[in-house]
Amino acid sequence: MDFGYPVLTSLIVFPLVAAAGLFLIKSPQVARAYTMGASILELILGLPLLTFQHNAEFQFVEKAHWVPQWGLEYALGIDGISYLMILLTLAILPLCVMCSWTYISKRVKEFHFCLLFMTSACVGVFAALDLVLFYVFWEAMLIPMYLLIAVWGGDQRRYASLKFFLYTLAGSTLLLAAIVAFRVTGGTFSIPELMHTHFSFDFQFWAFLAMALAFAIKVPMFPFHTWLPAAHVQAPSAGSVILAAVLLKMGTYGFLRFCLPLTPDASVYFAPLMIAFSIASILYGGAIALGQEDVKKLIAYSSVGHMGFVTLGIFLFNLRGVEGALFQMLNHGIITGALFMMIGAVYERSHSRSITDNMGLGKYLPAFMGFWGLFALASFGFPATNGFVGEMLVFTGAFQKSPYIGAFLVPGALLGAAYMFRVSLKLAWGRPSTAKTWRDLNSREWTYLIIPAVFVFYIGLAPKLFFNVIDPSVEKLVNDLASRTTVQQVAAVTPAPPVVAAVETPAEPVNN
Amino acid sequence: MEFNPIQIVPELYQLLLIVALFCQSLGDGSETPPAERWLPFFAGFGIFVNIVSWGAEGLIFGGAYKLDALSQFFKLAIAAGFYVAVLNAARQPSLAEKKRPDYFMFLALSAWGLMILSSAVELITIYIALEISSYSLYAVIPLRNNDKGAAEAAIKYILFGAVATAIALYGFSYILASQHTSYIAQLAQRTWTWDGEPMAVVGLSLFMGGMFYKLALFPFHFWCPDVYQGASNETAGFVATLPKLGAVVVLIRLAALLKPGLEITTLLAVLGAVSMTFGNLCALAQKDLKRMLGFSSVAHAGYIMVGLVSATARGLAAAAFYALAYVAMNLLCFWVISRVASDGRNLQLDDLNGLYKRSPALAFALGVGAFALVGLPPTMGFMGKFFLIASAWGHGYNWLVITLVLNSAIAIFYYLSLVRHAYTHEAGENPPVPDNSAFSLCGAGLLAAVVLVFGMVPSGLFEYALTAGKQLLP
Prior knowledge:
The complex is a heterodimer of chains A (512) and B (474).
Chain A: H1 7-21, H2 28-45, E1 59-67, E2 72-78, H3 80-99, H4 108-127, H5 131-140, H6 142-152, H7 157-186, H8 191-194, H9 201-218, H10 227-234, H11 237-262, H12 264-290, H13 295-315, H14 319-350, H15 361-364, H16 366-379, H17 386-401, H18 403-429, H19 443-461, H20 464-493, H21 497-504
Antiparallel strand pairs in A: 1-2
Helix pairs in contact in A: 1-2, 1-4, 2-3, 2-4, 3-4, 3-11, 3-14, 3-19, 3-20, 4-5, 4-6, 4-11, 5-7, 6-7, 7-9, 7-10, 9-11, 9-12, 10-11, 10-13, 11-12, 11-13, 11-14, 12-13, 12-18, 13-14, 13-17, 13-18, 14-16, 14-17, 14-19, 14-20, 16-18, 16-19, 17-18, 17-19
Chain B: H1 9-26, H2 35-52, E1 58-60, E2 65-67, H3 69-89, H4 100-119, H5 123-140, H6 148-179, H7 184-187, H8 198-215, H9 223-230, H10 233-239, H11 242-255, H12 263-284, H13 289-309, H14 313-340, H15 355-358, H16 360-374, H17 380-392, H18 398-424, H19 438-456, H20 459-472
Antiparallel strand pairs in B: 1-2
């Protein structure tokens, strides 16, 4: 379809141009308004995306030679897996600008520069169809996020930002080696083409490990999660929102886009390990969240748990599981993003993130508490909210796969309800109340909370539209995976010595 | 082939500059315009001269001097680097006015030696060119007002240089004794296996030692941090960048002799791996900016080896591209350092505190340089590293590639500390006053633009490097 302009490219380039324009502005207030305008314009530029066709093909494809000597292409395109993530990224930007309107008072221009740069890189990550292009955006996004935490963060911002940067960069260095290995072995950097290439098990084994490390750190999965609470707690609220809503999704998106289609055999081989890690994330994240005194840290640990649902759904390899994972990605972005914005709003009143400094809001800030209650309910998957849809699907997928996996999820979901109730009850009715002189939400805060609230109900009550969008791609993903791994098993049974040998050799690393 | 002076116009032009500077240095300087005033224009014109003679081809001076795509590529890079280095040094605060013509003459002489080096295809010619470029630097390094550290640095540089070149010469005697020729073209026909010609293998390894010294590759790197620290910021900016180009071009020519799996190739790979790891680990602990960059250049010398071991045209092109990227990024960093330390002092990390406020543009440029040195997109550093990795994978040195990518993770810490200090710390008392003149900001902006633009659209530049590589290894 032709809209007279390259939609995805303009979505990537426009924020950069707008960011450069910021340097011409002097006043902080104008910079805020300017970025707000730019974010609305970015949304308008994204309007053609609404014509997305409900099929499994890549759409809005753009291709150009980039570095022909190495076969690098500037290739963009989206399918059902990346579509919702791009919309989420676009929608988060104006909310971030609004929620930092008064929160950020120093170096306002640079702050909005980082936000715009960030948006550009995030759209690029989800739209790239060339491995190297993907990697470029993937890494480029580290810089603005680092600055967001390091410059506008809390007291321990240097520690947190450094940890974030070191962790994520160290994880993704091997991803670059894997990307090059794909090119040398598979002959191309193009993701759609590589999806049809078969690699030996040995190759898949190592490639999967290299990629999974990068993605698992980004998600973050249980043993690699320690950067997340630090980063979330120290980041300014807009930083936390982007981190929770978009950045963490890149990890799970990576699993869906790369691990499953490119290394199907290794994915199946490692699935038990990944499922174990996911369950560990769910239980561990929930249990730790239960004991937090800092609201932001609590939500950060709850993210670890929620993202555990996503990775679990992915590695169930059935339709419901992957659907659930995608829904959970979207929902977590909306709900946790909103919760972080609310924490930012209350922080502006109390200047503390501790639960005891923010108690008894129910009487004095009814609107705030109303929104908080809604998002808290959605967070642990209360029916009629969007959280329910995602969690329900993952549950269904898990029980389809094995009742034991399902059995592990039940305490995970209960923990979610427990910690959300604990914090919400204290916020609403805890004594002594600290909120007597605070004012309730103003119109700006209403605006940026009502938007996610609408989506909480919309996805919760009528998720059909979203199913229509993601289903073709998810079905293709699951079917491809099934067909390609069964072919592999048939080949292994028939006398084919190299394959058999390859399957047998890497037996030992699974034990750890 | 018939010798035609047109072919070597860039070298002649550079020689002309040297002669002019020499004449000026004879007088007391009162009647001639100061060197730093007129030289930048003529050095800038030198870039144009190099562009004009871009297509020169030929083999002259008895087959010892070759003009091909590789040599012209590097000569242009050297001329451009010389231009930036001259501009950078033009406002040197720690250099007496009277010494300036001499100072610039030696810089020009060193660049001239490097230009010759990029065309030399015979070992003795290479050796002499190497000496020309080194000797002039020996004289330049101690030129820093009232600073004993600079003298110490110069002594270290000379002693190391003497030993390294002696080793190279010693190695040359082995090569000549076993292979009976000193022409690279003929050497390429000979066998280089340990079983066949052990003496030649030892000889070539030792001869390369001379280049490793220039490049600051382990174990010839010990001078590097000390010299960077002792020399003035501007001089260090020159020493850290241009001589690497000369060393790389010779190594690229010599690498055409090597096949993957040969003992020397493996030696290169091992030295590269040790060099990058050692350099990065040492740099982690540094507080002095130039010292840190010194260890960083040890690490980067190791990275360049990755391109040389694959023995493909693309590998050589990747090494050439990376050398260029390295020079651009380092010139950018040294430009910022020289401008921030406008009184000529040695900068500590803490001196960068609050730079974002004192000079936003320089802080931004420093950020670009630091992220480029890490190898983050969208910079030239990322593309260079990516080309290196892509060229080396699948040629038996995958372990070297893995070492490289893991090293990026180590390196991030200390490069990031540049950005951390410039952006997140507030200035202490008496921070150095950065030079915020248009000259300073334009230079930083242009260099940053080069690093970014070639990071985003590298294909044109890489095509030239690839043409050069294909001439050596069709």
